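Hi U.,

Before I forget, here's the chain from the pilot set. I'm dumping it here mostly so it's searchable later in email.
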Amino acid sequence: MRRAEEMALVQREIVGRWEEERIRALLSSRARLMPKEERLLEGVRSEEAEEGGCGVTGFACNIKVKGKHIFAPSVQMHNRGNGKGGGIAAVGLEASQLGVDQETLREDFLLQIAFIDRDVVEELEREFIRPFFLVDHEAILETVGDYREIPGLEVEPPMVKRYFVRVMPRVLEMFRREAGLEALEPQDVEEEFVAQNSFQINMRYYSSLGEKRAFVLSHGRDMMILKIVGYAEQVVQYYRMEDLRAHIWIAHQRYPTRGRVWHPGGAHPFVGLDEALVHNGDFANYFAVTQYLRQRNIFPLFLTDTEVSALMFDLLHRIYRYPLEYIIEALAPTSEMDFDMLPEEKRKVYRRIQASHIHGSPDGPWFFIIARTLARENRYQLIGITDTSMLRPQVFALQEGDGVQVGLICSEKQAIDATLESLAMEDRRFGKVADRYWNARGGSYTDGGAFIFTIEPKGPGQWELVCTDKFGRRIEVPKERRPLEVRTRLRASPLEPSVRRPLDEALWDK
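Structure:
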């Protein structure tokens, strides 16, 4: 039996026959996005895209907190960047701050486009937005008056315009027929249209030869990405994000070790659909992973490991509809002794996943932080995944206070503590030291090398943060722990007279 046929059989065992047909339809619909002769080109990584030792950080909170709290850990990890790329993402936003109601924020796709050349705004809207989308709200993001006001910011960031959009019903129906997606649910079709439309925008205005003029920053629901040629903290400053509130924040300091990286499109985070991904590391098998994607009509345009990672996550989640445990196994497969320690039923499933996906699993040192909206479930997640070799630093932390919960993932503990100190200075319920710190063990049977912070509804206007490992086992804070109050000053205990008198005589009897 041919290798492709064997893989098809394994894939069918994992997802089922009907899901296999749905997957084939979605992936086939993308073939028309790239001319056939270009589809055959090898996916070669640009010298301008090489990664070094980057800094990644993120936190999730059961209450919405301000963007200034992602500023603090970004500054702490300033040395992990070199000014060639910084970015932030926010998930679980505050509708009133964006000029929309809660229903629009929840239901619409939040399309953010970076315009490097402001002269193409009207053309891009005429070609890719006005004919296809119902635009419920649009606005240009506020910035500082002059980018040179921000110390160290050497390249002017792009103008960013935000659109809250829904695909027009007639456009959706036409796309469904032309792409061969008649059997799919309307929401699946709409998501795929948004993804393909963004791909075409990037092809036209960014990836093609010539001047890079515009690109899509993000297009997910209840989430946004901003990135520049600079540092992550400068993103917060330039776009005036200090007071923007969100449940989840992530940031990335980029430190490419080779090449001239002058454009913001190569910075992190990268977007799948409803997820933003930042990454520290370097794939040894970048070519193999890109070929795996190209065989499925998924074509990387920005030529970075991180873009490929985001596309792979979107493929496994949105197209294959794997549960998160299976996604993690496909990315960071369990091996050797750890595999033998798994229960037999789990080994059986994992063997099938590895047989289907091992050649597309990223190899080499890497660590992912992913922030995503689970729009259909009304939940948000912050995910940290390490590779099996654990050659990139990663620290997890959890704190629970008086009605507040926060989970943190960073490259280093100092960034976690900087985040907590920033939160504590504004809200007395937070402490500046986490209740629990730990590391993941990549590809292990103990925790799976991944931890997930999920924010889910608890009641009207209330949210709960739940921390689990890859296998769904809950991580909790010991009940007797209390946050450290940073405002409390230690007072000297009064000395007994028998002790104080000799000290006074020794100090002052001169």
